């Protein structure tokens, strides 16, 4: 059982910082995904649609 704990990395001295960085990255990714339409509208202008005159 001890080998499993050692192998999982729970004894890593910087584990707290690794977890914090992962949570921040996940939160940032979710926020960007939720606001992607607003962010895209900052960079892309809407084109007016004109009917095709064939």
Q: What does this molecule look like?
A:
The protein has a domain of 27 residues. Helix content is 65%, strand content 0%. It contains 3 helices and no strands. The model has no long low-confidence stretch (mean pLDDT 78). It is mainly alpha-helical and 54 residues long.
Q: What secondary-structure arrangement, pairings included, does this model have?
A:
Layout lengths: L1 H7 L6 H20 L1 H8 L11
Radius of gyration: 23 Å
Biggest pleated-sheet summary: none
Task: Determine the fraction of residues in helical runs and give it as a percent range.
Answer: 55-70%
Please indicate the percent range of residues in DSSP E strands (runs of 2 or more).
under 5%
Kindly report the average pLDDT value: 78
Unreliable parts: none
The chain-level structural class is mainly alpha
Total strand count, please?
0
- In DSSP terms, counting alpha (H) and pi (I) runs of 4 or more, how many helices? 3
Distance between the terminal alpha carbons, to the nearest Å?
A: 75 Å
**Helix and strand sequence:** HHH
3D shape: rod-shaped
In a few lines, what is going on in this structure?
This protein has a domain at 14-40. It has three helices and no strands.
How would you describe this structure in keywords?
54 residues; mainly alpha; 3 helices; 65% helix; rod-shaped
């Amino acid at each position: 059982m001890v080998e499993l704990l050692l192998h999982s990395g729970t004894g890593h001295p910087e584990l707290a910082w690794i977890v914090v960085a992962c949570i921040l990255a996940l939160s940032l990714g979710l926020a960007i995904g939720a606001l992607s339409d607003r962010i895209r509208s900052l960079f892309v202008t809407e084109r007016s649609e004109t009917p095709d005159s064939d």
